Amino acid sequence: MKHYSVVITLIQRMESFGISPDIYTLTVLINCYCHLNRVNFGFSVLSTILKLGYLPTQTTLTTLLKGLCLQGDISGAVSLVEEMENEGYQPDAVTCGTLLNGLCKIGQTGVAIRLLRKLEKGNFELNVVLYSTVIDSLCKDRLVNDALNLLSEMRSKGIQPNLVTYNSLVQGMFTKAKEVFDVMIQRGIDPNIYTYNSLIDGYCLQNRLDEAVKTFNLMVEKGCSPNVFSYTILINGYCKSKKIDEAKRLFHEMSNKGMIPNVVTYNTLIGGLCRVERVRTTLELFNTMRACGQHPDSQTYGTLLDGFFKNRRIAEAMALFLEMEEKKLDHKQCWGTYNCKRNL
C-alpha cells in the first residue's frame, strides 16, 4: 500500500522530536508530495534542502521531474532538466526515461523519439524500458510499422524486447486489425470464421470480454457458425478473468449444439477451475473428458497437479502423477510443479 500521507505525517513528527531529516528522508518526502499531485510542496522541500546545506542528489531532482511529468507539465520538466545540466548534473537513463515517459503520456511521441535519438548519440546506456515506452506510444498513435521498425532497431543493438514490449505491439496490431475489420463490413465483404476468431482472440488478450462477446454474437447474427476454436477462445477469456460460471455455460452450450470439445478446450476449462480452487468440479470434468474419448495430455496432468498441490491435495496429486507414469506420458511439463510442491 502506498500511504503517502502517512509517510508525510511521520516525517513531520520526526522534526517535532528534534530529529533532523537527511537528504534521503527529504527526497522521500518530495516523492510523497509528487504522488499526491502537490509538486509545489515538493519544490518547497527542495528549498529546505538547499537551506540546510545539502546538495540535492540525482534521485532528488529526478523525483521532482517525475512529479512534473505526472502533472503533465512537460515544459516545466524540460526546463528542470536544462537547469540540472547547467548546475553540472548529467542526466542519467532514469532521468531521461522519466522525461521520455512523460512526453509519451501526453502524446508527444515525435518529441520523445527525438529525445531517444539524442540519447543514442550520447553516452547513455539505453535499455528495454526506454525503447518499450516509445514503441507503446507509437502503437497508441497507430503507427505500428514505425513501432516494428524501432523493435528491429533495438534488437540489432542487442536489446531484447520484454513482455511489455510485446503487449504494446499486440495491442497496436489488434487496433489496426479492428480497423480492417470495420472497412470489410463497410465494403460489404463478409468476414469468415477465421476473421471473427482472430478478432475475438484479440479482445480476450486485452481482457475486453464485453467486446469479445459482442463479436461472437455478431458472428452468429451474420450466419457464420462458431466452431470449436471460437468457443475455446472465449472460454479461455472467461477463465483468465475468473468468470468460471460463464466459461462453464459456454462449454455446455457448445456440447448441446453437437460440438465435441477437444483437448485444448478441456485443458482450458480445467485450468480455469483450478484457478478458482474448484477441485471437485475439476475432477468431474477430467473424468468426463476421458469418458468422452478425449485423451488427457501432459498439459492436462500438469494443470491438475498444480491445482492439487496448491489446494494441498497431496494424495490425489501423487496418485495422478503415478497414473501419468504408468501411461508413459511425457512428464517433463510436470516435473517442475512436482519438485517444487512435493515437500508441502
Automatic annotation (TrEMBL):
Pfam family, one: PPR
Domain of life: Eukaryota
InterPro entries the record matches: PPR_rpt, TPR-like_helical_dom_sf
Entry annotated with the keyword Ligase: no
Keywords: Repeat
Each PPR repeat, start to end: 22-56, 57-91, 92-126, 127-161, 192-226, 227-261, 262-296, 297-331
Entry similarity comment: Belongs to the PPR family. P subfamily.
NCBIfam families with a match to the protein in the record: PPR
PANTHER family: PENTATRICOPEPTIDE REPEAT-CONTAINING PROTEIN 3, MITOCHONDRIAL
The protein's name: Pentatricopeptide repeat-containing protein
Species the sequence originates in: Quercus lobata (Valley oak)
